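testing teh design pipeline on a random one, pls ignore if ur not involved
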């Protein structure tokens, strides 16, 4: 690979997206305007300047690519990597909101003013590892050519469905910058029997941002996940309608979620309770990630309705727990 043609591989700290501070747009970048409710539009820029955003809109730009990153699909094998070349997908006029725009507004805009390539690569790697663990994509040892093609198809659909990017190329590589001594020391330390003191409770300030991030993602992404599911072939009409209804109820639950800080007007929640509710919101967000990975697999291979029911149950269970209600083993509120 010619490194002169792949600057993103040599400069992982380069920003691939950022908020427009002074209206200047880097050459080759695409501008996107976000309304307060997350609706997005992509105006055309002329001579590095884009039309001014409307009142209440926030302007961002992103570089479509191509970008190249190196991912480690298995934490236990840090020397085995994948070199991934990708671009941000071109707008699909059939979609009310482009998937990359949703990712940018849902997961980045609320927490940071820019998205570095290294940060994006870490998100791609985490999604790939979770999908491998979940079984929605498979990369067995001594992969055959047919298994590799199946993995590539699953990976391509996963990254498009989850992030709105199109994979141009993906090749196995041997990563040379691995400190094997540190890896072995870490494994030995993990396997050695020892007693550790009970961890101190996490500071309250750490729980609140996680709760806000989780609820923001659920609020913005559940409607799009429901639209994606509605477009997939169904085993039968009644089953799909029931699944869509459960997703709609989950979205409604998020929209009416009580505040983390207060259990009633003038009555603040205890710190332990706030941490517990924030953990439930984070668990619901993980169920959302599993849902996106499963939807990607269902696009290519079909089926998966039993797994979908499991994910929807986990989502409902954790949303009820975030609301502060006790539940039984099926996730139903206790009287």
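output:
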């Amino acid at each position: 690979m010619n490194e002169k043609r792949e600057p993103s591989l040599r400069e992982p700290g380069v920003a691939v997206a950022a908020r427009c501070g002074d209206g200047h747009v880097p050459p080759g970048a695409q501008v996107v305007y976000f309304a307060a409710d997350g609706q997005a539009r992509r105006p055309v820029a002329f001579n590095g300047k884009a039309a001014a955003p409307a009142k209440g809109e926030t302007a961002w730009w992103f570089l479509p690519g191509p970008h190249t990153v190196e991912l480690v699909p298995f934490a236990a094998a840090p020397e085995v990597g994948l070199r991934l070349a990708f671009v941000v997908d071109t707008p699909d006029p059939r979609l009310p909101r482009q998937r990359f725009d949703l990712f940018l507004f849902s997961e980045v805009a609320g927490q940071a003013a820019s998205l570095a390539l290294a940060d994006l690569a870490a998100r791609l790697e985490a999604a790939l590892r979770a999908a491998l663990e979940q079984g929605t994509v498979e990369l067995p040892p001594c992969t055959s050519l047919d298994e590799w093609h199946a993995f590539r198809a699953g990976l391509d659909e996963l990254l498009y469905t989850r992030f709105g990017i199109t994979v141009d190329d993906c090749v196995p590589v041997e990563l040379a910058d691995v400190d094997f001594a540190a890896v072995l020391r870490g494994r030995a330390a993990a396997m050695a029997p020892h007693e550790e003191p009970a961890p101190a409770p996490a500071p309250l300030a750490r729980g609140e941002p996680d709760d806000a991030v989780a609820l923001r993602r659920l609020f913005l992404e559940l409607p799009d996940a429901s639209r994606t599911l509605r477009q997939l072939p169904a085993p039968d009409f009644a089953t799909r309608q029931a699944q869509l209804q459960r997703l709609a109820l989950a979205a409604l639950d998020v929209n009416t979620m009580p505040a983390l800080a207060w259990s009633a007007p003038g009555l603040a929640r205890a710190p332990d309770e706030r941490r517990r509710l924030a953990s439930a919101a984070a668990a619901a967000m993980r169920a959302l990630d599993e849902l996106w990975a499963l939807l990607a697999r269902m696009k290519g291979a079909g089926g998966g309705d039993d797994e979908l029911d499991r994910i929807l149950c986990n989502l409902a269970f954790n949303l009820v727990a975030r609301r502060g209600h006790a539940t039984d083993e099926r996730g139903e509120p206790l009287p």
